[in-house]
Amino acid sequence: MLVSLAAVELCLVCGDLASGYHYGVASCEACKAFFKRTIQGNIEYNCPVMNECEVTKRRRKACQACRFHKCLQAGMMREGVRVDRVRGGRQTYKRRAEPGVSLYPPGLFPLPHVVSKLPVISHLLLTEPAPLAANQDDSTNDSSLRTLLTLCDLLNRQLLLLIGWAKQIPGFSGLSLVDQMSLLQSGWMEVLLVDVAWRSQGAVGEELVFAENLRLDDAQCRAAGLADLYEALRHLTAKYQAMKLSGEEAVTLKAMALANSGVFGGSCGSEEYLKIHRKVPSGDPVAFVLEMPVST
């Protein structure tokens, strides 16, 4: 495991201990209050430097502009804040992308007729987390080691985001805590691999797109000791392209990768979607895709 999957969760904004899910994101009380105050007061901030200030527990008060940007980047939703300042009650809102920021890769938008007939898939699309940016690690001059450290940091943060995403999958929160932990521990890697393969479709030079600012080609992966990972992901990406996998199927495949991670021996009901609509046999859906011939 890259990080511990204990009950303790971290604030996705500053890294402090999270008190719960506020405005759609695991966050601490301080960042929750800051975001609420900013939205209710319609406050605009300006960064005195380059809009690249570090936002940590110790430095979160140093730059309000960068802290607010980090809140939005982490996925906090403006629609969740009651602008009338009245306490109590819950609003029903949908995740909305910030201007210029796409929540999904090209083509990953719901088709009206699919959403109307399959509300579960509509829900999966709406709860799909915004992609994270990589934080370049400058602690070493070794380019290969720097790539590996940057990737590990990104995967750690993606894993924290994945835990919050999993809790929004219909039925997941109804499982016992032990079962939730077992599914996450068994399926987190497959879910992240599905994400990377989906983002990497059509990438220039057969790069793997771990983040918009972290694209690795064959040579870079080999230099960092990730040759096997590169081959497996490029193989999976080719399968996606050959199958012309739709956006709706992609988010469903992610949920299935978690639900069918082997803990319950394939008994989870989410497998039924691909069995019915794409004639996928019982078992691991990601393994099934990998075993298909690359022909259209």
UniProtKB/TrEMBL annotation:
Family to which the UniProt record says this protein belongs: Belongs to the nuclear hormone receptor family. NR3 subfamily.
Gene3D superfamilies on file: Erythroid Transcription Factor GATA-1, subunit A, Retinoid X Receptor
Alphabetical list of InterPro entries matching this protein: NHR-like_dom_sf (IPR035500), Nucl_hrmn_rcpt_lig-bd (IPR000536), Nuclear_hormone_rcpt_NR3 (IPR050200), Nuclear_hrmn_rcpt (IPR001723), Znf_hrmn_rcpt (IPR001628), Znf_NHR/GATA (IPR013088)
Superkingdom classification of source: Eukaryota
Keyword Nucleus carried by entry: yes
GO annotation, biological process: response to lipid
Species name: Mola mola (Ocean sunfish)
Protein location: Nucleus
Record bears the keyword Ribonucleoprotein: no
Coiled-coil spans in chain: none
Keyword terms, alphabetized: DNA-binding, Lipid-binding, Metal-binding, Nucleus, Receptor, Signal, Steroid-binding, Transcription, Transcription regulation, Zinc, Zinc-finger
This protein's GO CC annotations: nucleus
Residue ranges of domain NR LBD in the record: 110-296
Signal peptide location: 1-20
Nuclear receptor domain location: 8-83
Protein name: Uncharacterized protein
UniProt-recorded Gene Ontology molecular function terms: DNA-binding transcription factor activity; hormone binding; sequence-specific DNA binding; steroid binding; zinc ion binding
